[in-house]
Here is the input.
Amino acid sequence: MPKSRRTGRIKKIIGAIRAADVRSEAPAPQPINPAAPVMNSGRDRDWAWHCSDPEGGWNPYGWNSQDQARFAAVWCREADDLVDELIDRYGAMWVWRTPAALLTRLPDVAERVRDLAEGQLVGQQHTYRGNPTSIYEHASLYGPFHATRQRRSWPDPQPQPCPLCGHWFTAGQLNPWILRQFGPPRWCKECCLRARNGNPAPSTPDAAREAVTALASALGTIPAQSYASTPVPLDLPADRRDTLVAAMAACPPATAIRALLGAASWLEVLLDTKVVTDAWRPARGTYCLAADGHPCRSLGERAVDDWLTRHGLAHELEPTWPQHPELNPSGRLRADWRLADGTYVEYAGLTSDDYLAKIHQKRQLARTTGIPLVVITPADLADLTALFGRWLQAAT
Ligand SMILES: [Zn+2]
Here is the structure.
């Protein structure tokens, strides 16, 4: 099969955990009567994984009992616990969260799944030779799905009201990318799309300033130019999260704001609206200062740095990785932070589609150098306590 067609098919199976299809969907409000939930169909398809369906409702592309037996050998009790946590939060949508959740929460299990994918699953008819990342994703959807079905059940999505628009919806109507950005099902798909796409209505410079200021205040920090695709923090109170999503939906797209304000850069927008007064842009690409004065290159980095400060975890900036003949030949590679116990912390911005492979590279460097590593993805910004709980306990 030609590469492009193969890629297209991969995207059909699991592309939903990426954001590529966001813009192609037009909002289509569909109120649901809670007494008589509507089955999803067509464009409004059902994205849930159904416990009662032996294939979950998806095409397993040949994933068979032998694959599952191999997978069982790399699975473990801690991974079951992580799945239980995902089910509590995401209900029948939990399976979509496992590829990334394993990578950041149980990196050793993720590496074992990946090794399995590279060593034993690659090359079979149903897999994608030369693309271990896609096979990792496939394996970390189907493996956990079957492993979990064997030990417990979970309910299909139930109708729930959207706190922003009042329409009833089910979690199954939310695309996997919505879960990645907005967290556990709370707002209807239409409201999430409005937040993602921004307010298209023509506006005035003053209205744009007001929208940016409202966004900054709901966020409690500086909005990034990519605010529309930034994860909604989980550790804010629910009503504050509602305010934030409403503010995102009311805000015009960043490009429209820049045009309205005649700003050459997002930084100019932030200065114009007085959201920042202390930003500058020296050679290193520094964008802003963290609360403790550490310079940060992105607002994601700043969020992590501020979180570490807020929780009293000492963190040193930019430790170098030891030299390695292949992975770090110049010896100049740096991580983002080093914690007091020597653990390295990396923030992976995930701007590309290839983020699973990039995280894997960093893990390899950590594995060969023996340095413990925590990798943070934007989805993790929503709940850093889950990643750093161990250090918090040690600090108290
Ligand atoms: Zn809504």
Summary: The two ends are 56 Å apart (CA to CA).
